[in-house]
Fold this protein.
Amino acid sequence: MLKSINRVCSKLGFEVHKLQPINRQNGSQIYQYLNADGSFNYAHYRQVQTAGNKRKIDRVWVKEENISFLSEYIRSKVGQPNFGICHGTRRGKEQEWFRANLACDVIGTEISDTADQFPHTIQWDFHETKPEWINAVDFIYSNSFDHSHDPERCLNAWMSCINKNGVCILEHTSDHERATELDPFGAPVSLMPYLILSWGKGQFYVTEILDAPARPEGQDYLRYIVIQKR
């Protein structure tokens, strides 16, 4: 039914993506970027993410106090790291503060073409990997996992990069519980360990959930979901 409506609206010149429903499965939500025929509209996803980045380019979500806290935690788990990746970093403060705290190479990824404005940031879709990253990353950190259009594919890509002793840390707040066009994935923090276990198919799982020392204004909580390989 929805595909038929979209086809009609497309012929009439309406913006059919606004008719796309949020897919709700097992307590989680996925905003679907669909063409009129029901196929995935990657161009629209990229357009929305880039526009959102530019609209918020002067804002810094991450807290330096929290990065200092995570730096100590990472050292306690992996020792002295050599290489880390922060995904979806906008202004790049995450990698700046991790580099200062951990004295190692840390890069950030950002899908928007604003990436080259900020140090140690590459323009990159975080659903993809580079060959040199596979099994070579000590830690991955992101507060942007809710920007994934396919969280199972995304997390499997990230975990393929983590080395056997490394950690992947997902920041999760009350805002991450619901899906929107800009933030297409949403789930309660209590559901995340089960989703992650399912997505990992026995290859990785949640080992800890940490409370952050500081949380942004307006958030009921800020927790860090720690994921490691078996």
Summary: The first strand starts at residue 22 and ends at 25. Confidence is low (pLDDT under 50) at residues 1-6, 12-19.
